[in-house]
Specification:
- This protein has about 525 residues and is of the alpha/beta class.
- The protein folds into three domains: about 5-235 and about 350-405, FAD/NAD(P)-binding domain (3-Layer(bba) Sandwich); about 240-345, Alpha-Beta Complex (Flavocytochrome C3, Chain A, domain 1), CATH 3.90.700.10; about 430-530, Methane Monooxygenase Hydroxylase, Chain G, domain 1 (Up-down Bundle), CATH 1.20.58.100.
- It contains 15 helices and 18 strands.
- It has helices spanning about 15-25, 45, 65-75, 80-100, 130-145, 220-225, 255-260, 285-300, 315-320, 320-330, 385-405, 430-445, 455-475, 480-500, 530; strands at about 5-10, 30-35, 50-55, 115, 125, 150-155, 155-165, 175-180, 185-195, 230, 235-245, 265, 305, 340-350, 350-355, 365, 370-375, 525.
- α1 runs parallel beside α11 (about 385-405) and α12 (about 430-445) packs parallel to α14 (about 480-500).
- It is globular, with a radius of gyration of 22 Å.
- The protein binds flavin-adenine dinucleotide.
Length: about 525
């Protein structure tokens, strides 16, 4: 593989958003290169269990109801036009996937079997058993790998974008490619007419997360360094129910289990959710996560439990085959014993400022999926609205990129190769590991489910110290994936803290014990690169 390659479009990330956009663009005749950190099917998308929220049964459900549920969860911070855009595009996204060959689960009448999840007033979650993401990625991946216009580079990590002017804050800051760390440890220059960041969220910024290892907020950091502001980064969703097990990591116990009748209990078998919300175990995620956090802090227990034992055993096995099997392998038979669960970082509602169609304020730079802030989720994401966002955005961002490409001449600028200066092989991996752990621990302890001014100040002060050490490493040593990720999680952690400090209220996912009220004026939190870089 050459160290300098050209493409019409460079896509960073092979989740649902990146792969769907790649396919769409390739079908329009554009040459697409996809870079992805690990194997093509390692992503949050591939781990999604519950499904895609969309209105299917118009006899009982409606776009208005889906919009209203999204707005209720979003606690006033959603952009209503964006919500309408995504909700109304839902049925089309489902049709598209069906045409690609995905078989969503059907009921006995041969219609889509619709799941119900927290915050939804109707059954509207289209799913493929309890491995919806796996099935989606399997089918889209197959089409991508067969397409002659798409090249996929696995085990390649994007480092930073290349702009024509080299100065991102100048007027002609058009993005023309990216530097990418290859699977051989060399830095490649990929030149492209446009770049799409589809890098997902940032769960790994926290010690406990449902996200896979690749989810280190790289795209957020890369886009921010390139000049795109971030919006509402304090709105981190903690999933209430991750399996608490000494050997099984990051295993999500889908909300759909509570949708089907699962009930949260403490170790004595007592229910507790009635103290927190009228919807009890099916309350919105932020309420359930905070309630569990509170119960655990009050009791000193390591976890709470999800009781499925009142449901029919055959139904459980049929409806949740994957979760059932994994629990059973870990010694938990959900037919007869409650499942131990804890909350963990799950989803980033904030992101790089963009339109619902994925355009940013930087020419040539587009975003799609969880990395973007479109206004859909507001202060809290409604369950299963994110695959909807990833799928719908992928279609429209492809249209935007195609249009941009048709109007824009390829850049004549030939960027220099990556300059590693006097870099040497770094041999003090321990310092990187130490800082990795420290950032994630600080975020979990001080910037987690419940925040306070003092905790946020402490977190920022510690992070500032580490930032200098990490920057020194970055410039003095040869880059590795660990070092790149550390640099990115540290920046993203800072963005979350600074955003949390700016919000002088508690709203949606952001709960600060020093401001336990909602302000009358509702506004987005914006952090711009000029403020901190
Ligand atoms: C366990 C779990 C269950 C979920 N269940 C649901 C659900 O049921 N319904 C729902 O709507 N949502 C669900 N979500 C959320 C949803 O899966 C994600 O929001 C969505 O899949 C994001 O898609 P994406 O394409 O934006 O990013 P992702 O699917 O996260 O893909 C990001 C890609 O970017 C790559 N990448 C990142 N950084 C770099 C870099 N520097 N260089 C190269 N490549 C890079 C990664 O390797 C990955 O391939 C779930 C999430 C998790 C973790």
């Amino acid at each position: 593989m050459k160290n300098r390659i050209h493409a019409d479009v460079l896509i960073v990330g092979s989740g649902l958003s990146g792969l769907s956009a790649a396919l769409n663009l390739a079908e329009r005749g554009l040459k697409v290169t996809v870079v992805t950190k690990e194997a093509i099917d390692v992503s949050n998308s591939a781990n999604a269990q519950g499904g895609i929220a969309t209105v299917s049964d118009f006899n009982v459900d409606s776009f208005e109801k889906h919009i209203q549920d999204t707005l209720t969860a979003g606690a006033g911070l959603n952009d209503i036009e964006a919500v309408r855009f995504f909700v109304e595009n839902g049925p089309d996204a489902i049709r598209h996937f069906e045409q690609l060959g995905i078989h969503f689960t059907e009921n006995e009448a041969g219609q889509l079997d619709l799941g119900r999840e927290g915050g939804h007033t109707e059954r509207r979650v289209v799913h493929a058993g309890d491995i919806t993401g796996f099935e989606l990625i399997k089918v889209v991946k197959k089409a991508v790998l067969l397409h002659p216009n798409i090249t996929v580079l696995e085990n390649h990590t994007a480092i930073d974008l290349i702009s024509e002017s080299k100065f991102f804050f100048s007027e002609d800051n058009r993005v023309v490619g990216a530097y990418v760390l290859s699977d051989r440890g060399e830095v490649m220059t990929i030149i492209a007419n446009s770049v799409l960041l589809a890098t997902g969220g940032c769960g790994k910024v926290y010690l406990y997360t449902s996200n896979p290892n690749v989810t280190t907020g790289d795209g957020l950091a890369i886009g921010f360094r390139a000049g795109v502001p971030v919006v509402n980064m304090e709105m981190i969703q903690f999933h209430p129910t991750i399996l608490y097990h000494e050997k099984i990591n990051s295993m999500l116990i889908s909300e759909a289990l509570r949708g089907e009748g699962g009930v949260l209990i403490d170790k004595h078998g007592n229910t507790f959710m009635e103290k927190y919300h009228p919807l009890k175990s099916l309350a919105p995620r932020d309420i359930v996560a905070r309630a569990i956090d509170h119960e655990m802090k009050m009791s000193g227990d390591d976890c709470v439990f999800l009781d499925m034992t009142k449901l029919d055993g055959d139904f459980l096995q049929k409806r949740f085959p994957n979760i059932f099997r994994i629990c059973l392998n870990g010694g938990i038979d959900m037919r007869t014993m409650p499942i131990p669960v804890v909350p963990a970082a799950h989803y980033s509602c904030g992101g790089l400022r963009s339109t619902p169609k994925g355009t940013t304020e930087i020419p040539g730079l587009f975003v799609s999926g969880e990395v973007a802030h479109t206004g859909l989720h507001g202060a809290n994401r409604l369950a299963s609205n994110s695959l909807l966002e990833a799928a719908v955005m992928a279609k429209y961002v492809a249209e935007e990129i195609a249009e941009y490409t048709s109007k824009t001449k390829p850049s004549s600028y030939e960027p220099p190769d990556w300059d590693s200066g006097n870099a040497e092989d770094e041999d003090e991996k321990i310092i990187i590991k130490q800082n990795w752990d420290e950032v994630r621990r600080i975020m979990w302890n001080y910037v987690g489910i419940v925040r306070s001014n003092k905790r946020l100040e402490r977190a920022l002060a510690r992070l500032e110290l580490m930032k200098h050490e990490i920057t020194e490493y970055y410039w003095n040593f040869k880059v590795s994936r660990d070092l790149l990720e550390l640099r990115n999680i540290t920046l993203v952690a800072e963005l979350i803290i600074r955003s949390a400090m700016k919000r002088k209220e508690s709203r949606g996912l952001h709960f600060n014990i020093d401001y336990q009220f909602k302000l009358d004026t509702i506004q987005n939190t914006v952090v711009t690169p000029a403020e901190i870089l």
